[in-house]
Design brief:
The chain is mostly beta strands. The protein is built from five helices and 36 strands. The chain is 8% helix and 40% strand. It is globular and about 70 Å long. It binds copper (II) ion (CU).
């Protein structure tokens, strides 16, 4: 089976490349050709300190370059691997053909050291997305391999400024270099490996990370959590921010409440902020999720001293137009269940590893795994594995997720968006679309989607240490 799968992946990659270049097809929309070169290089994380930190990222930029598209364009992205490890790139949230999804051992062979791979796909949906490796992601993402990917709407809401804040963290030693302790079972079985240096767009967080505005302007702020394990909870002083999109998908605008803007790993939030402060004003953006001792200020909204551009906020709508996603029909949806167990403080896990029955003691100590989904713990992208679910193409699905652990888990499904229909059995009135959703400890959540995109799709926790420790499986759509 291993060899079969390897051969299948080689032919699937060839087929994907062939499909990506239609000869004489319908009026071609613009294709953007992009080169991405993952490599190690040094950057100054804090402009106030001369220390240079070795990072892994793309095109000698950290974070990697912002990839910007208009909806309906095509991307052709050539990756030349200059790392000392195999890698891939996954396009988080994008509904791409399965062969372009960037999952080693499942949708493609890893890109070897010195090797090249070309991704080609259409940007079907507008919104705020990001890209990162799916190869040893608990190490490669933690070392800095990520970048933002923005797909403009056909008719975007009118704003004066459109800013991206890519939030992440690094675990640094006294020489300001990465602590090389990736994949420890202590992190895998707990909250994951969290950094001690918060980063905003690759720079040390703090009051000097400024979003410069002029009084009266409308700001669209795109937040992306690229940290491998850290949750953020932001508050913005002196402004009424409005939510306009989650995970890139427009929704009915509604105000941020006092509990703050929550972002689990992998998630995105788009905000609209009418900047009605006085010229010269300074307003802090804080993270309530951080201990006070390490400082809670991530950055500042800094007003220029110029006169206001307008006295009242723009009258035009702030709403982000929704994408045309297939609407799940609950009346005809089939029920499916996925349960999570495990973790350091959790109930003992009894189950199988990569499909083989195993003793609980062996799962952690010998296998380096700490979590099960439907009683099975799987090594990342194991070549021999059973899918969690097998769905028919076009099937309407109501997926009941049950978290029996004492930990929160940001659960991510590839290639699809799902509606969050209920939390702990209570209907969720907003029914927002998501590709990543945080499940609280000891909770349940029901999500619905149409299994429209054929292939084998990853379903995993986006605490990347949890994914490496068993919370990684696949859903097959045939
Ligand atoms: Cu998790």
């Amino acid at each position: 089976m291993t060899l079969d799968r390897r051969e299948f992946l080689q032919s699937a990659a060839a087929l994907g490349a062939a499909l990506a270049l239609p000869a004489g097809a319908a009026p071609a929309r613009k294709t953007q050709s992009i080169d991405l070169v993952p490599a190690e290089f040094r950057v100054q994380l804090d402009p106030a300190s001369p220390a240079r930190t070795a990072v892994w990222s793309y095109n000698e930029q950290f974070p990697g370059p912002v990839l910007r598209f208009h909806r309906g364009e095509r991307a052709r992205i050539a990756v030349r691997n200059q790392l000392a490890q195999e890698t891939t790139i996954h396009w988080h949230g994008l509904r791409v053909p399965n062969a372009m999804d960037g999952v080693p051992g499942v949708t493609q062979l890893p890109i070897p050291v010195g090797g090249r791979f070309e991704y080609a796909f259409e940007l079907k949906d507008s919104g705020t997305y990001w890209y990162h490796p799916h190869q040893a992601s608990y190490e490669q993402v933690a070392r800095g391999l990520y970048g933002a990917l923005i797909v403009e709407e056909d008719k975007p809401p009118k704003v004066d400024r459109d800013e991206i804040w890519m939030l992440s963290d690094f675990k640094l030693d006294e020489q300001r270099q990465q602590v090389e302790d990736f994949g420890r079972i202590l992190d895998i079985a707990n909250d994951g490996r969290r950094g001690n240096q918060i980063l905003v767009n690759g720079l040390a967080a703090g009051p000097e990370r400024k979003i410069e505005v002029r009084s009266g302007e409308r700001l669209r702020l795109r937040l992306i959590n690229a940290a491998s394990a850290r949750f953020f909870r932001l508050s913005i002083e002196g402004h009424e921010a409005m939510y306009v999109a989650f995970d890139g998908q427009g929704l009915e605008p509604h105000p941020v409440l006092t509990d703050g803007i929550a972002l689990g790993p992998g998630m995105r939030v788009d905000l609209m902020i009418d900047c009605m402060g006085k010229p010269g004003g300074r307003f802090e953006i804080r993270d309530a999720g951080r201990p006070k001792a390490s400082g809670t200020v991530l950055g500042t909204i800094a007003y220029s001293t110029q006169a206001p551009v307008r006295a009242k906020p723009l009258a035009s709508s702030i709403a982000v137009p929704p994408n045309a996603l297939p609407e799940p029909n609950l009346a005809k949806a089939s029920d499916h269940y996925i349960m999570f167990q495990g973790g350091m403080r959790g109930a003992p896990v009894i189950g199988t590893v990569d499909g083989k029955p195993s003793r609980i003691q062996d799962i952690m100590a010998k296998q380096g795994l700490a979590w099960t989904m439907n009683y099975n713990a799987q090594h990342e992208h194991a070549l021999m594995h059973e899918p969690l679910l097998t769905l028919r193409s076009g099937e309407h699905v109501l997926l009941h997720m049950v978290n029996e652990t004492d930990f929160q888990h940001p659960m991510h499904l590839h290639g699809h968006f799902f509606r969050v229909v209920a939390v702990n059995g209570t209907a969720n009135p907003r029914r927002e679309w998501r590709d990543t959703v945080v499940m609280a400890p000891r909770s349940s959540m029901d999500v619905a989607f149409v299994a429209e995109n054929p292939g084998e799709w990853m379903y995993h926790c986006h605490i990347l240490d949890h994914a490496a420790g068993g919370m990684m499986g696949t859903i097959v759509i045939e």
